[in-house]
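Weekly puzzle thread! Below is a chain. First person to post its structure in token form gets bragging rights.
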Amino acid sequence: MATPDVQYLSSGDTALTVQFGTVIERELNSRIVALGHSIAQAAIAGVSETLPTYRSLLVNYDPLVVTRDELVAQLQPLIESPPEAGDAAPAHWQIPVCFDSDLAPDLAHVAAASGLDENEVIKAMLEVTHHVYMLGFAPGQPYMGDLPPALNIPRRENPVARVEKGSVVTATGLTIIYAVPNPTGWHVVGRTPVEIFNLAREEAILFKPGDKVRLSRIERDEFDELTAQVDDGSFDMTRLRQP
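Winning reply:
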């Protein structure tokens, strides 16, 4: 794809936002993620971290080591020569989800709003290979897309004060898996027993931007069994990673 117009936006005096156009697209987001890897490989003096979003990359830097103009000059050739996948190749995951009514209190509403029945909503969510656009709002929490147009429904009119960790929620054609208990303005349509964020693990955060995620349906007895395994530490996280 052609490189969209690039803007360099100061985000305070220690960060620079490199913004690519105005459209949210998988291919563009994949290039943004790969650009972050290229910046890391280039080891630009003064750059401490990069954070990808839907259509931009935040670059944190030390202005005492590299000025804004110097940083832009070093970023431009990396942007003009899009990187190959290389080290940025995405991981593929399969995440078990239970859609029982007490774990999916908004499934009926989503079905009615989309003109589908509940099984069709579930089927649509299972058939999509979800692209992790970014992590945000809570530690390790993935913003994933893209669902079919029928599921591009508005957020809730009235947010709820708390949803449990592992809740699978949807709105505006996107899907989130909640990393920790939190309020939400999205629609809760299922829950996974998998902890996508756990500080006790060597890799506390399960997903990275650019990863691919498939959801698989499980029944309540398996959900309860896997939840018990997660709670006692016997759950095998490697089973989630796909070739």
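Puzzle host: Confirmed. Bonus trivia for everyone else. Residues 26-42 form the longest helix (17 residues).
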